[in-house]
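If it is no trouble, might I ask you for a protein's amino acid sequence along with its C-alpha cells?
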Amino acid sequence: MLLDQLRAFGYSIEREEDIGPDGHRPERESHAEVVLRRFEEAVARLNPGLPPEARQDAIRRVVQAVRASRLDVHDPQGLISGALGIADAQAFLKERDL
C-alpha cells in the first residue's frame, strides 16, 4: 500500500484537527494557504547556504505555481472565477519572471 511505503520513508499522516488553522499545532493561518509552514522549514534545512531572501523568493514562486494550478484544477476554463487558464497564468508569471 502506498501509505505504508511512505511511512517507510519517514512520512506520516497529519490530521486536520492537529495541523489545521484551528488545530493544536496549526501549520497555516487559513485553508486558503496552500503550502504548510513545514515547507518553509524544509527549504531552510535543505538550503542552509542560501540567503533568506533567496529562500523566500523560491517559496513565493512555489506558492504562486500551486495557486495557479489550483485555479486550473477547480475551474479549468476559468468560467466560475473568471480567472485565467493555467497556460495563460504561466505565461503571465513567466513574462514577469515570477
